[in-house]
Amino acid sequence: MLAVSRGYRKPFKACTKCRLLVPHEAPTCPSCGSTTFTDVWSGVVIIVDPEKSKLAKMLGIEKPGRYALKLGL
Ligand SMILES: [Zn+2]
């Protein structure tokens, strides 16, 4: 078995509008309704309480969930 990180398919795609990580089979983003996603993302941020999270404010996240820290390459 070879572990090649380049060919690894991430279990989630990231919404390009709000960064929410959603399963590949989801047709639309459950958070913002966008249909534009990217497989190229890195870092995962789990926001539990956007009201109290400085990181959530920094990233412009208003709803709890799992988000990509960085989109694109
Ligand atoms: Zn979204």
Q: What key phrases describe this protein's structure?
A:
73 residues; mainly beta; Rubrerythrin, domain 2; 3-stranded antiparallel beta sheet; two-stranded antiparallel sheet; 5 strands; binds zinc ion
Detailed description of the structure:
There is one protein chain. The chain has 73 residues and is mainly beta. The protein has a single domain (10-71), classed as Rubrerythrin, domain 2 (Single Sheet), CATH 2.20.28.90. Helix content is 8%, strand content 32%. The chain contains one helix and five strands; from the N terminus they run ββββαβ. The chain has one helix spanning 54-59, and strands at 12-15, 21-23, 37-38, 41-47, 65-71. The strands form two sheets. A three-stranded antiparallel β-sheet has the order 2-1-3, with no helix packed on it. It is globular, with a radius of gyration of 13 Å. The mean pLDDT is 89. Bound molecules: zinc ion. Zinc ion is lined by residues 15, 17-18, 20, 29, 31-32, 34.
Task: Give a short summary of the structure.
Helix content is 8%, strand content 32%.
**Gyration radius from CA atoms, angstroms:** 13 Å
Assign the CATH architecture.
Single Sheet
> Unreliable stretches, pLDDT < 50, 5 or more residues?
none
CATH class: Mainly Beta
Morphology: globular
Q: Which range best describes the helical content: under 10%, 10-25%, 25-40%, 40-55%, 55-70% or over 70%?
A: under 10%
List the bound ligands. zinc ion
What is the end-to-end distance? 27 Å
- Helical stretch count? 1
Q: What is the N-to-C order of secondary-structure elements (H for helix, E for strand)? A: EEEEHE
| CATH topology grouping | Rubrerythrin, domain 2
Fraction of residues in β-strands:
25-35%
Total domains, how many? Answer: 1
Widest sheet, order of strands: 2-1-3
